[in-house]
Amino acid sequence: MNARTRFILAIVVLGLLMTAPFLLTVAVFYADLNEAQRVGFHEVMDRWLPIGSLMTVVGLFFGLQLLRALFKQYVQGLMAMAETLRLMLGANRNFRVTPEGPPEVQELARAANDLAQQRDALLNDVAAQISEASASVEAEKNRLAALMSELALGVVVCNLDGRILLYNNRARLQFQALAQGPTSMSGGALIGLGRSIFSMLERAQIAHALEHIRQRLKKSSTEAVANFITTTRSGLLLRAQMTPVLGVQESAEATVQVPLVTGYVLTIENITKSFERETQRDQALQSLTDGSRSSLGNIRAAVENLIDNPDMETAYRERFVGIIDEETARMSERLAKTTTEFADSLKTRWPLEDVLGMDVVAAAQRRIEDKLKLATKCEELDDSLWIRADSFALIQAITFLASRLQDHYDIRELRFRLIADGKMAFIDLIWSGTTVSSETLYTWELESMTVGNEASPLTLRDVAQRHGGEIWYQREKAVHRAFFRFVLPVAATPEAQHIEHAPHAHGDSRPEYYDFNLFNFSDTRIDLDRKLTDVAFSVFDTETTGLEPSAGDEIIQIGAVRAINGRLLRQEVIDQIIDPQRPLRPEGIPIHGITEDMVRGQPTIDVVLPMFHEFCADTVLVAHNAAFDMRFLQLKEARTGLVFDQPVLDTLLLSAVIHPSQETHKLEAIAARLGINVIGRHTALGDAFVTGEVFLKMIPLLNDMGIHTLRQALEAAEKTYLARVKY
After folding, report:
1. What positions carry a catalytic annotation?
2. Residues sharing a CB contact under 8 Å with residue 351, sequence separation 6 or more, in sequence order
3. Among 132, 164, 209, 435, which residue is least crowded by beta carbons within 10 Å?
4. What is the pLDDT of residues 220-237, one digit of tens each?
5. For every residue of 410-459, which 3-state class applies, written as one string?
6. Same-domain pairing of 187 and 236
7. What mean pLDDT do residues 645-663 have?
């Protein structure tokens, strides 16, 4: 029977069901017309009306059932098929429509599957061609990986916003020193793709190094690099070299191409141990020098007396020989003591870098003009003079003195002078008019350096001692001028420096962590109107003692993974078992596999939650059935003082948005619809991985529905009936 005949037959049957009871009642009524004339019209109506009404209701009932069946088979069936087709076209290429329902719908399903098969064949052909064309790119990536694995230094690549685009394993290990307290459980400091380098290194120091590089590029310098020393929160010393990542922009004045800094590469070396060794060596030398000076003087005097008086009496000779013996024994004792105790005898020295003196002066001028709006000029500059300095701290000190002169003496102009005298270099800060008393300079030397809203814990005296130099105040009475002089050590020129290569180190340091598409990625602070593709996410899951958070159940495991730029960062995770400080429910152990022995001795939620809170900072939270997990976190707010106030996306609700006609929205069912292989279910980290993959597959499906921004996704999720579930 063809579709046209089936359709006509269905209409005829539906018409009969709707009209037959009424027509039958009319026919019977006319058959009893003679009876109606004999006994009366009303009696006949009273007899047949209930029967006719009942038959009409029955007919309507069966007619509606027929309509319902047709609606379910054709309308709802086609809607479900449409959702399946979207899955087949987008998230899961291997998904196929199940031929079911009326023959016409089954034929449509088979046609859709045939089209999908043809589409897959074409896509496979395109993929093969792309793979062949990308072979050279893959080779370049492999060379990059090999190069990175051979580096003995940590490497971090950032865009101009300080967002990390690449880091190797050596950098991750070096930044582990930044982890304090509970964050050490997460595998070290929070270095990760899309995270800010400023959480580990000082923003002002990075900005200073970038400005230094830009100025050198303007001068067409071939040495457009910057070096600096910084300390971690745990007190370790890191030596960093910054190299720019350059693009090209067209000059507005001509077709000249001007270098454009689009990011920077930081090579980082932990120099704590080497610095400690150098300091200890200097301390040992200083201790021996100071302690041996008097002994050597006594020995020399005794020897001179013995030489000058060869006929000296025996008693006197023995006395002088005893002095020599006593002093040499004392020196030996002092040497032995120094080798074991010299570490605490002297304070440490700050490591310095070789910089061109005029670069420091130019940077100080720009900073003073920008921050203080104070005019500056140069009088005498030795453009070949290199100095040993911490340029960041030195420029802070110069700016601080300039601000004090401006605030207290109304100085309108400052002049700079850079000269050398033997092994010392002088940077002079000169002004005309009012002089400064020695007492005032002494007071300034002991103040913490503050300029505007920028503050440094260092003082002028700290900066001078760090450089092994001094700050002088001098007057030029003949011309009514005065100046502050920074006395600094002279460095060798780059041509005369001996370059030491770090020992070759082998290790698995391949750059597993990179995404150069993040060059245009900006600040990750959460904006509800940002596109979902531009937001960083923390996908998490918890395992608990039970299903009643308000009744005292506790978290026993937290697993989380970061997702950014359409990628799940499987190297940046949290996987932590927690001691709930209460017995586990026996019925839950077979599900999550966590036993009493596994939680015993593990950190408590008070220790783990701050780690998790820092891990999720500046990201959107994602979970499946998020209301359940968030309720556990909310109940800990008063106890820990930690509030998770960022937006939360729930893959359970988003599934109801994308596939409203599907019968189930369990995580396994969603994963199957989207073609995701489920591994490690019912462990917190395993569920977080599955949830993350599901969420990333959902983003293009949401975009197809016109849901592009975070705000739109949240509003759509809140309108689903599942959003009413509370815990």
Report:
1. 682
2. 229, 237, 239, 271, 275
3. 132
4. 776 788 988 887 666 678
5. CCCEEEEEEEEECCEEEEEEEEECCCCCHHHHHHHHHCEEEECCEEEEEE
6. yes
7. 91
